[in-house]
Amino acid sequence: MAPGEFHSNNWRQSCAEQCPPEYEGSGQSSRRCPTNNGSRDITGPLSVLAIVQYILLWERLQDVSTTRGVADQICWRWTFSQMYSAKSAYNMFFCGSTRLPGADLLWKTWTPPRVKLFMYTVMHQRTWTVERRKRHGLQDNDTCILCNQSPEHIEHLLLHCPIAKKIWWETLSAVGLSSRFVNDTLGTFDTWTAMRTGLPKQAKKAMDSLFMLVAWHLWKERNSRTFNGKAASVAEISDRIMDEARAWVAAGAKNLGSVMSRE
Ligand SMILES: [Zn+2]
């Protein structure tokens, strides 16, 4: 910005547009920054509005310093060197964002996209369980349709429900991983982590796929009972899980195949 252009330059919204009375009250020959002796340019009586705008303008410009005779230059504020880089611009878009625990694990795991999307909603607590529907005033009853004992919260449905625990036990036993069974009331990601921690690398990846597969089938069984009135036994659900696990292996889930061979 050239000297004298402070009020009319559009670098931080034109002061002439933002504060017309204050602008008119400033000197006609040299309009300068109010924090840099520009107040001397104001002549004549000022209206109350002009005084208020002057004070607001002063507050906005507290961190601005101008040097007489030195032209302004555009600086990139997102790097220490103040030089633009595509990386810093990309990072800027994610300022203030929060990371979902397990997000990386979720997207790296071999599963069909629809299962990943389902797990994404689970980890964000966004699945429409009856407990959530009741919380939103959409229905009165929030009882778990699998056990008929507790509110159907997503973590109850997928992890803590007695029926879900039986299915977890059956599935993990079938692939020789019964020692990874978690009989605790941890959250979804903590349970997933507890199941995979300590396993060899390939078995870990297999467990990741298996975790999402079992959760997916528990959700499907819940939907079948809720919307179609059809209930399957624990043995039937476990058989379906193993059938789909074989299908996933045939479709390319190599790591899952490493534990399926233990059947
Ligand atoms: Zn239940």
TrEMBL record:
Pfam families (UniProt xref): zf-RVT
Start and end residues of each Reverse transcriptase zinc-binding domain: 84-168
Superkingdom, taxonomy of origin: Eukaryota
Cited InterPro entries: RVT-Znf (IPR026960)
Protein's UniProt name: Reverse transcriptase zinc-binding domain-containing protein
Species: Eleusine coracana subsp. coracana
